Structure formats: C-alpha cells, structure tokens
Amino acid sequence: MSSKTFQFKVLATDGAARRGEITMPRGTVRTPAFMPVGTGGTVKAMYMDQVRDLGSDIILGNTYHLMLRPGAERVARLGGLHDFARWPGPILTDSGGFQVMSLAQLRKLDENGVTFRSHIDGRSYEMSPERSIEIQGLLDSDIQMQLDECVALPAQEREMERAMELSLRWAERGKAAFGDQPGKAMFGIVQGGDNARLRERSAQALKAMELKGYSIGGLAVGEPQNIMLDMLEVVCPILPAEKPRYLMGVGTPDDILKSVARGIDMFDCVMPTRAGRHGLAFTRHGKINLRNARHAEDPRPLDEESNCPAARDYSRAYLHHLVKSGEFLGAMLLTWNNLAYYQSLMQGCRDAIEAEKFVDFSGVTQERWARGDLPTL
C-alpha cells in the first residue's frame, strides 16, 4: 500500500508502545521499524534483494558520505538514490551533521553552518541547513533530517544548551528550505544531551514547528543506557502522538526493546552489519562470537528455527572457519543473519503490541538472551 502524501497512523498501543504505519508514495513502513544503514548507497555485505526479503521496508542513506562520493549532483543525474542503489522502497537520509562532527577534519562551526575538510581527500566543503536539505533533495530521499549539532557526552550544560539552541534555529531554516513536499517529510531532531530541562525545551520548540516527524538525537553516544531511557521518558510524552518518533543511531536489541516500550517508532544502527563483519552474530539466544575457539567443532547452526538460510543452513564450525580465515563469505553470512534477527525482533514487537502482550514478549525475549545457548558437546 502507498499514498500520494506522507501519512502516519497508530494502529494499536500497549502501554506506551505503539504499532503503526507510515505510508508514502514509494511504500509503507510498518512500525516499530528498524532501518538497515546503507551508508554509501549500499547495506554493507548485502544485496538489496536480500534486505527487502528480510522484511526491511525502509533503509537509511548517509548524506555526508554520498555528498563526498560519488556526489549528490551525480546521483541526481543518474536518477536519484533509489535507482542508483536499486532500492524501490522508501529511503531516509540523515543530515550529515553527525559525520561532519565525528569524521571531518579542520571543521569550523558558526551560525551559518559548518565548514570542513573531507576525511577522504582534504577538500573543503560547506554544510548549511539549506545545503543539507538541497543534497537530500538531489538524492531524492523520502524522509530527510534537519542539520543539527550533536554534542558528545559527557558535556558541560552550557555547551549542550548552545548546541541545542543552534539546532533549533537550524530546524527552522531547514523547514523553510524543505518547503511543501506532499509525499515526503523533514524530521526535526531533539537535542539537549543528558539534561532533562534542555530536552524538554527542544521537544516543545520542535513540536511548535508542526513538522511531519520527530527524531531524538545525541543519545547512545557513550552515556549509560539508563540515561538514554530517562531522556526518552522526558521527550516522548511531549512529542505529538500522531507523528512518528525516530531514535537515531540505536542500537542493541535490548536498547530497541526498552525504547519501543517508551514509545519509539523507528530505529537505525550500524551495529548488526558492523558486528557481522567482525564475527559477532545476534540471535534469539543472544550474542554469539564466532571467533571463539569453542565453535570450531560445533555442527549446529546459529538458529535451526530461523527462516534465514545464513542462520539455519550453515554450521557454527563453518562460520568460525570463515571468520578466522578472513573470508568475505563469513561477513556476508553473519550480516545476513544479523539483519534477519533484527527484522524478526521488530516483527515480534509489532505482533506483541497488537496482541497487547508486549511486556510478556519483552520479558521472554530478554530471558532467552540471558539464558544463552551453550553447546552440549
């Protein structure tokens, strides 16, 4: 199902947890949703057909990386990111701000935006709120993020407040640059670090802008999980119930379960793909490190009940061999397994919310992770 306009509907609730749908011209996103990260127009170690078949309704593209290589104007000339990457469904692009702060060299930030040197070749670039929206428009993404300043935690309160207020001004400018695009959306980003007062101020100001969706940024950047959850409990009740809520860059399966319980609808994170490339599998039995020697002669698959061939059809011994040998296939199979598990977890969340059994589902899932799946050999 698709819509000519951007629409969000809450279909069921269970406590603060929400089951919903975002409909856009390019398709429907079932929420709670996990968005695989396609940094440079590719979900690393995966074919796009695989990503779709696992149940992903939407992927994320990275404005900073695509701007540097191959260039947003080039992508536009080649038909936009959907055609370029062979992904027909919705795409969300981030603003590029986080990567500017974390990767770029010799960056200079002021009221207008950020001037920085590429981490690839040292060339100088300027990124303003308007330019970020322009680049995302050239990529032709369906959901676009405002440019914001993300402060690493811990930080001084005055520094968090300065960055939060600057991000609010940039949100206004981003909204003006985005204009009226019926089938697309620009999301604002709630900032404020680990300070409840600042988070509340940011959420209230963004709510007053009447945007189509709202993101919560600057969390899962090194602070304890309980701090992240405390900030969600401050922010989520403020944000409009009829608009989607996106927690940026999160996270572990446990982070996702606890954030869904507090009213979050959308997630993205490099964790399942990055972990797969480094020998770590996520399963319903918890995490399995295939680098460990104890898997060398274990004939069992990662999960005999999984619908994913990578989890069901290959032995742990073989996966251990691939990882230890540095074979590309090891990264491919474990990434496939990890994204399959994440999408299975999201489907479980959606089903449990509809059945009003989310607390039970969460408890059973966490108990299984804690119990693990040690070999009996």
From TrEMBL:
Active site as annotated: D94, D268
Signal sequence coordinates: none
Classification via InterPro entries: ArchSynthase1/Queuine_TRR, TGT, TGT-like_sf, tRNA_ribo_trans-like
Single biological process term from Gene Ontology: tRNA queuosine(34) biosynthetic process
Keyword Transmembrane: no
Pathway(s) this gene product operates in, as recorded in its UniProt entry: tRNA modification; tRNA-queuosine biosynthesis
Pfam families, sorted: TGT
Domain of life, per lineage: Bacteria
EC number assigned by the record: 2.4.2.29
Gene3D superfamilies, per database record: Queuine tRNA-ribosyltransferase-like
Transmembrane region(s): none
UniProt catalytic activity: 7-aminomethyl-7-carbaguanine + guanosine(34) in tRNA = 7-aminomethyl-7-carbaguanosine(34) in tRNA + guanine
Keywords from the named record: Glycosyltransferase, Queuosine biosynthesis, Transferase, tRNA processing
Binding site for substrate: D94, S95, G96, G97, F98, D148, Q191, G218
Assembly, per entry: Homodimer. Within each dimer, one monomer is responsible for RNA recognition and catalysis, while the other monomer binds to the replacement base PreQ1.
Role noted for this protein: Catalyzes the base-exchange of a guanine (G) residue with the queuine precursor 7-aminomethyl-7-deazaguanine (PreQ1) at position 34 (anticodon wobble position) in tRNAs with GU(N) anticodons (tRNA-Asp, -Asn, -His and -Tyr). Catalysis occurs through a double-displacement mechanism. The nucleophile active site attacks the C1' of nucleotide 34 to detach the guanine base from the RNA, forming a covalent enzyme-RNA intermediate. The proton acceptor active site deprotonates the incoming PreQ1, allowing a nucleophilic attack on the C1' of the ribose to form the product.
HAMAP family, per database record: Q_tRNA_Tgt
Similarity section: Belongs to the queuine tRNA-ribosyltransferase family.
Protein name (Swiss-Prot/TrEMBL): Queuine tRNA-ribosyltransferase
Source organism of this protein record: Phyllobacterium phragmitis
